[in-house]
Amino acid sequence: MPDNNKQGPKYFVEIEGTEYEWSKETITVPEIRQLGNLPADQPIIEVDPDNNERTLAEDEVVTLKPGHRFGKKISYKRG
C-alpha cells in the first residue's frame, strides 16, 4: 500500500534549463539566485510558456506556475 502522506517536493523550478525540486508554491528572487547559482549583479527574468519575458524585482515573491522558467537577463553589447 503506497504511503500517500509522505512529504516531498511538490514543485519544480526551472532555472537556466535545469529543473530543481522545491517544497513551496512560492519562491523569492534571492531563493532563485541561490538555487540556480545565479550572480547577484544580473537581473532575474521569468519566462512564460509563450516565451514572454518579465524582469523580476529583487524583493519579489513569485507563485510557481506550470511552464514558467527563470534565468538571468542577458545583456548584449555592440562592439
UniProtKB/TrEMBL annotation:
InterPro entries: Multi-ubiquitin_dom. Pfam families: Multi_ubiq. Residues 14-70 form the Multi-ubiquitin domain. This is Multi-ubiquitin domain-containing protein. It comes from Candidatus Giovannonibacteria bacterium GW2011_GWF2_42_19.
